[in-house]
Model the fold of this input.
Amino acid sequence: MRLWWVSLALLLLGACAPGGDGRTTLAIATVNNADMVRLKDFTRDFEASHPAIRLKWVMLEENVLRQRVTTDVAIGAGQYDVITIGAYEVPVWAKRGWLSRLDDLGPAYRADDLIAPIKAVVSLEGRQYAAPFNGESAMTMYRTDLFRQAGIEMPAVPSWEFLIRAAERLNRPQDGVYGLCLRGKAGWGENVALIVAMSNAYGARLFDEKWRPQFDSPEWKAAFATYVSALRRFGPPGAVANGFNENLAMFAQGKCAIWFDSTVAAPFLSDPATSKVSSVVGFAPAPDEGLGRSSGWLWTWALAIPETSRKAAAAREFVRWAAGPEYAALVARRQGWLAVPPGTRQSLYLDPRYRKVAPFAATTLAAINATDPVSPSVKPVPYVGVQYAAIPEFQGIGTEVGQQFSAALAGQITPEAALAAAQVAATRQMIAAGYLK
Amino acid sequence: MRSSRKSSVLFTLAAWCAALLVAFPLLWALLASFKTELEAVAVPPSLVWFDWTLENYRAVLSGSDYGAALRNSVLIAGGSSALALGLAIPAAWAMAFAPTARTRGTLLWMLSTKMLPPVGALIPIFLFYRDTGLLDTHLGVILLLAAGNLPIAAWMLYANFREVPAEILEAARMDGASLWQEVAVVLAPMALPGLASTFFLVFTLAWNESFWSLNVTSTDAAPLTAFIAAWSSPQGLFWARLSAASMLAIAPVLVIGWFCQRQLVRGLTFGAVK
Amino acid sequence: MSAPRRSRAYLAMRGRLLVAPAVILLLAASLFPLFSTLRYSVIDYRLLASGPHRFVALANYGRLFAAPGFLPALWNTLGLIGMVLAISIGAGLGLALLLERAVIGRGLLRLLVISPFFVMPPVAALLWKNLLMQPVSGLFGWLSALLGAAPLDWFAAAPLTAIALIAAWQWTPFACLILLTSLQSFDREQREAAELDGAGAFAVFRWLVLPHLARPIAIVVMMETIFLLSLFAEIFVTTGGGQASSNLAFLVYSQVMFQYDIGAASAAGIVAVLFANLVAFFLVRAVGRSLDA
Done:
């Protein structure tokens, strides 16, 4: 019984919030990647230079964060003052009027320094609605030692046929080295991102101008069949459960000869503390089929301010500081150039001090510049986005399609059946959403 | 007898093997929490001969506010369990000692309230909490978890109370004991193992609940489930740090469990004791 | 000086008053979401779409039933529950039998056995998926390579089984503890008498111990079923869905998490409640007798 009273007392105590101290407190919701964790570590520096503002962090993994923030912003609950959203959300939410305009952050922010595609992907009708924090594209990573041993030379821009032929020669499962590692895990941000970006190089697109899904087109059949056959023949077992993290772990352990995935893997792979193959990893552009588009994709995590926030002025201060050159310089001074959030500003890639410690710098910048979110496919498209379509329905469509892709990789259905099922699912959702009759 | 001593030893050996097997994934995670990230996913795996490091614990403790998350978890789990038990004890008493024709139906209805997937109620509750200012408060989560665990608590207590001989309670009543005295002075000591184990079960369920605790909290009331969600699947290798975070999240409950395990075991008897 | 003997009716009224607070809270906590869910299930409410929420009657339900993944989800729900019950009760019984006869370090044994119950479901799923079941870098893969067999790609070949294994690992401690305490309270003399009469250990188990365990097993079945009906964290973390491993709760969850379609999620939620009540009805019929002894 006493326990009960104590608990009740504790609960009442706990439910009472302490009084404020006159400072504005910002609630920041963010994803838990390394760059964001680092930003959180620099909280004290921000609070020292902006004494009227206090920061409170909500750091969650990507899926949970997305659901929490979307629910909050859509209902207008106003729990967050600064949110971290991806390139996919920015146009959709900006169109709904949920985000404050961020095209007037002042000269100190140096908006002209942003890499062009990155700036385009966080803007709607030419106006910026989010401040990119880190950005990524995709590139080919390979084992220079294995290539040298087999006498293969990586061309300036590889094609998928080349990579697959190389993978065939380098695939030695009995020695624990697999020729080609690619994402297989179901998810619109996992396997779907990779396969859609790959399909762009084959001339495919997600929707035609009338919003009809295109999974039954010959280009899609070619791209997807190539993906499935290559990964099944020369990929590691269990590929169907491998996302970015799992493949990174495998390549870092020396188990992959070739890996095509996000540019954010490069710092991990080049660091001897996190990679066993740091001295023999090479970087090459994303595969290109010569049709006019590469297989690379474009993504950015950006800071945005919901319209419901009541502390917009303080929030803008924070965004200006965190996404601007000031924070980048601070991080470079304290923790070195490799710790600076990559993929957003040209000045970083032009700085010789960065290029000295980052052998992947030039390839990364070229990869980002090679993408065009407004015109991602060879054929005209009605949507924005390279490896996704910036429509609200895409997340649901992508989820279902990703599961079909995974099932084909696992051998449960044929690639043709998977594409047919994807077409049915996408069409069903587009009809329900009102794009098609 | 000699043969029974030998069989006891055999059984003990077998029991230890089985228990280690069951706890093995957790023990493996404990080991991984002291390895570097590369080591944690290395094959062939290393059992003892590796570079033991406390880096993961340091990173996790400095990167998130473990203390605040722990405090919130204790408040939320403790508060919701106390509330659930506070409501369940009278209800279980009534159903066990003053049953009506509707008692069985009530019990089954209580259990059936757990069948609606919580996601279906997310938006209405979210809106309700926003309008009443309960978002991101301890009280908000406590109410939800208490309602969720109340059926379990009522059911377990009911089963435990039924084993207490009604004559003792009646004798106390005839001696002039008020209802409060009957429950607190006579019933509670006899049913203490049952109360303890019910509290512990409900506490554990609330501790691990990862839907409401994530959805209606943000900065102030975020418990250990949010702490864990901060350390799982970022980009990059994370299993060593996630293992460290998990150990930190489990440790408090394990400690409590160790101290009250005898009560726990007795309380799960469900009345087979004669 | 003796207090007047309280009448039956007085007790009954007292009883109803005592049950009232619990019932009121539960009524509020269950009816409110239930009615809201019902209401949302008949309108078109998508978080990301603009425009007023139109009333669409049974359109959400229609789309749910027409979705190719719906029937597999129903079967998977049942399959998952069945597998987890079988594994957890079987292993729990075995563990309980062993633990009962063990003599050294019983406290630590009990702690080891109960520890999986304390792990948060997403963490447990991540542990099993990456540290154990990963064919290339997981422990199981390494062990099977040692034994000369090809590592099993759990989530491609047998995803539902893999998920059942993870869930069963978490619930076995619960089953084991309940069965253990029941075993420990079993009348030692009865068992020894039977053994003296010449009954073999197996016969003693089958005809004496097992019936005694009928009640605790029924309790375990009821409790686990309730929780397993709404299991989704493990599916979300490992396979992310798919027809081979989604259950009904995951369908509901994915509608909210990925489609932000509250209308569809609510319709699926109502169907889930109906399905769960159906399962519970048959369950109570099957084990209900053992429940109230």
In short: Residues 181 and 247 of chain A are 7 Å apart (CA to CA). DSSP finds 19 helices and eleven strands in chain A. The two ends of chain A are 65 Å apart (CA to CA).
